[in-house]
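Reading a protein record of the kind used here takes only a little practice. The record below shows the convention in full:
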Amino acid sequence: MINITRIDAEQTLDIRQQVLWPDHDQAFCRVAEDATGQHYGGWLDGKLIMVASLFVENKHIRLRKFACLTEHQGKGFGSHMLLHLIALQQSTMLELFWFDARCSAISFYQGLGFSVTSEVFDKHGVDYVKMSKPLP
């Protein structure tokens, strides 16, 4: 299985760009709040293969820029990482874990207990919905 560690925002950029926005440069893949986020990397055999960033907003935590290299998708690494990130919130006072999900990934997130909470909306030509799950 993968090893999940904290990383810095700069380490997320290559995978964000390759997976999420390959037609854009890395600057496009930055998030204005990157300096205040919690960034995580999933490592397989010493190689960074996936990234995720978390941002606390009031009593909610938002997942942004969750990406796994294409050749490692469909092997359970994404589920493992997302469940790990949710488990990290168990001892906090946060109430909700949420994110904007690409419509192509809705069934993946529903399989992990997330619910669609919005209508479809467009971001840079890609259809998204908001999804969330209460934290225990």
